[in-house]
């Protein structure tokens, strides 16, 4: 069997892998990309509801979780959202800002995959799908990989295999295996940016409310996010919940402000004075979805005219509205998670080049590393930035 020789071999044809490949190719490197899936960029295609939230204009290191919060700083500083926006403009891809700095394609995520593949083609990069890695070993001047598509030799090996989220898209723990093979620690992984499940009484209390959406401030410990929440038939979802899921651990209390930006006590007192004959559920339905307002009154707040609430009852109701305790039982897991928390410990990785400090010529980029962004384009920006950092060094 013929040996395919190259300067850089990238494992993983997702956002980080394809970006690193063409960036290295532009520097004159002979680059091969291999992926076990049957097509490239599967998670890109499904991202952002099919429109790909490809970056966030407000990206900063504060938007990332890692055991080493300083690790992401260098790469993010050297490849910024405006750098990627310039690339998007070069390819004449129309886009819009949805909210909070989130940029989406006007048409389809396919435009971003096409951008990456066009850049790869222009840089002479060869991309091979349906290619499974069977063995990796070091040789005198680099690497030798035995795969289902033949034997590859390379000076540099870039692992861009992502995390464990959405296994139906081909996600595996392969990158973690490679890291361990060459002496790297892998920090515990768990589903991130994921819906939360309820069980027992908390689930029963929300029974019949599936599909109800509202703006909340979701808090866990010191973390807090204000955005939409969606009640599902299994628990809660929506941007505010996905964000807080990164900070929540089983057994931890969650708190929801159902009236963010409103002092519930002052608001209730005002309505008691001005609309004493109105039922609480009627007044609440003006600021909350009607079905939720009814359920809150049935189970927690009381169902009677405003004037019948004494000061103590109003204070109790206000507390519940501004600080509703939610007991989650778990998450929907990797099946629906947008990202994987944890991963390859950055302790033995160069923050400047993404190169292993234990094995020269071995690089880890993107989601396989213990760097996880918030919801809203931050994980794509980390893919571009970490890939760019590695491509300058391979």
Automatic annotation (TrEMBL):
Its cofactor is FAD. Residues 190-339 form the RsdA/BaiN/AoA(So)-like insert domain. The keyword Flavoprotein applies. This is Membrane protein. The keyword Transmembrane helix does not apply. Keywords: FAD, Flavoprotein. Residues 7-392 form the RsdA/BaiN/AoA(So)-like Rossmann fold-like domain. It comes from Stenotrophomonas koreensis. The lineage of its organism: Bacteria, Pseudomonadati, Pseudomonadota, Gammaproteobacteria, Lysobacterales. Pfam families: HI0933_like, HI0933_like_1st.
